[in-house]
Amino acid sequence: MPRRRIRVTDVPLRAAFAALRTELGVPSDFPPEATAEAERVPDLKGYEDATDLPLFTIDPPASTDLDQAMHLSRRGTGYRLRYAIADVAAFVVPGSALDTETHRRVMTLYFPDTRIPLHPPALSEGAASLLPDQIRPAALWTIDLDADGRTTATDVRRALVRSRARLDYEGVQRAVDSGTAEEPLFLLSEVGALRERLEIERGGISLRVPEQEIVERNGTYELTYRAPLPADGWNAQISLLTGMAAAELMLAYGTGVLRTLPAAPDGAVGRLRRTALALHIDWPHHVSYAALIRSLDPGIPSHAAFLQECTTLLRGAGYTVFRDGALPSLTTHAAVAAPYAHCTAPLRRLVDRYASEICLAAAAGEPVPEWVLAAFDALPSEMSEGGHRAATVERACVDLVEAAVLKDRVGEVFDGCVVDVDEHRPTVGTVQLETPAVIGRIDGEGLSLGERLRVKVVRSDPRMPPGAAKVRFTPA
């Protein structure tokens, strides 16, 4: 069957996205008091002047809520990373209407037609965003690395910064591949590769599962699979490095908020071993789980199915708070294989503002602000609820577009691969189409993980409620 791009007109989908926001109780406009407070001019006395540092940002092309800017340089045989994180606390007064609203929202929510920001756009896309050629307040990290990419020294302090360039992943990749990248950008690839090596060494996990992506082109929406570029990985390693440095700083200080994930129980790993056997993936007993997944190619159907199953081991992450030197029993994140904290996205995630304040206090040897400690007990549950809402929104949006893509094609046949089979109901599974980029439920006898097969669309109904299977397939 010849492949052809399928497009969906935006008018009915925009109405469906608006209805979805209502169904999920997504916040709409900010209260007038919060909007007014977001336009308050902050007091920036006492900030160091680091505006001469030639920082750059790396984000998707349309992004304007820019949390991080970086610069890398050589330092003897090692490296120095300067990483500026938007200083949101400079703008948000504790206990204010704006502060209260951020605790209600918790995270920025992304819809294909709009985003529902954590902070009013005047702040998140304006005064606090690290836009190019604008002087902005930041928590400026200085992290020194040795020749192998290991951290040797860490510091963070408030500073005024000015980004010089707004880059995107594709542009960074082209510049590095073509040899035209300037040294700070070339060092990103060098340090990123070193940190990836260290991740392997400590047993960290990076799942290379192609992501479904909703793309708007010429007033229509399309579904594609996006495989991350190496530049995505390098950039992620810088954020990961800073989150690990933040966690170590807080643990040494005795007060903090960590992102934690317990190790997978033996039963879950045993189930994965049975899955590998069913997919004819060789998994010798002396090879670790982390080492195995790094050897897999997501372009091979059986490998893609196994990687999809591996995501189950990453469930159960949460936030752990501690204070006054009473360290928690769990301080590590199993996928990172080290202590880790969320601190690099304060414009889009509530907890990062608090983590940043603790790190600034720890580095300066000062007490944590009382407003930070006052929020501690509620933070883990707030973040859990906000994370669940964000995941629900993301899945519901993809479900809607999938159903819209196929709603006029019920009865047609497509090529696909079985990427999941229900352990308790072996006649129910999940199939991933080669094109369009749709993943949906399949009902049929004898489903086998990793099996390539032809499937027929038997239902595609965008009107089904959130959480219901909008798209259904059967073997053709």
List the helices and strands and how they pair.
Elements: E1 8-9, H1 10-23, H2 32-38, E2 48-49, E3 55-58, E4 68-75, E5 78-86, H3 97-105, E6 109-110, E7 115-116, H4 121-127, E8 135-145, E9 151-167, H5 169-178, H6 183-202, E10 211-217, E11 220-226, H7 230-253, E12 256-260, H8 266-278, H9 289-294, H10 301-310, E13 318-322, H11 350-364, H12 370-374, H13 379-406, E14 413-421, E15 428-433, E16 439-443, E17 452-460, E18 471-475
Parallel strand pairs: 2-9, 3-9, 16-18
Antiparallel strand pairs: 1-11, 4-5, 5-8, 6-7, 8-9, 10-11, 12-13, 14-15, 14-17, 15-16, 17-18
Helix pairs in contact: 1-13, 2-3, 6-7, 7-11
Termini Cα gap: 14 Å
Helix run count: 13
Report low-confidence residues grouped into runs of 5 or more: 1-9
Q: Which range best describes the helical content: under 10%, 10-25%, 25-40%, 40-55%, 55-70% or over 70%?
A: 25-40%
Structural class, from helix and strand content?
alpha+beta
The proportion of residues in beta strands is: 15-25%
Sketch the major β-sheet: 6 strands, mixed
Supply Rg.
23 Å
Mean pLDDT: 90
Could you give the count of β-strands? 18
**Overall outline:** globular
Can you tell me about this structure?
The chain is an alpha+beta fold. It has helices at residues 10-23, 32-38, 97-105, 121-127, 169-178, 183-202, 230-253, 266-278, 289-294, 301-310, 350-364, 370-374, 379-406; strands spanning 8-9, 48-49, 55-58, 68-75, 78-86, 109-110, 115-116, 135-145, 151-167, 211-217, 220-226, 256-260, 318-322, 413-421, 428-433, 439-443, 452-460, 471-475. Strand 10 (211-217) and strand 11 form a beta hairpin. Helix 6 packs across helix 7 and helix 7 (230-253) packs across helix 11.
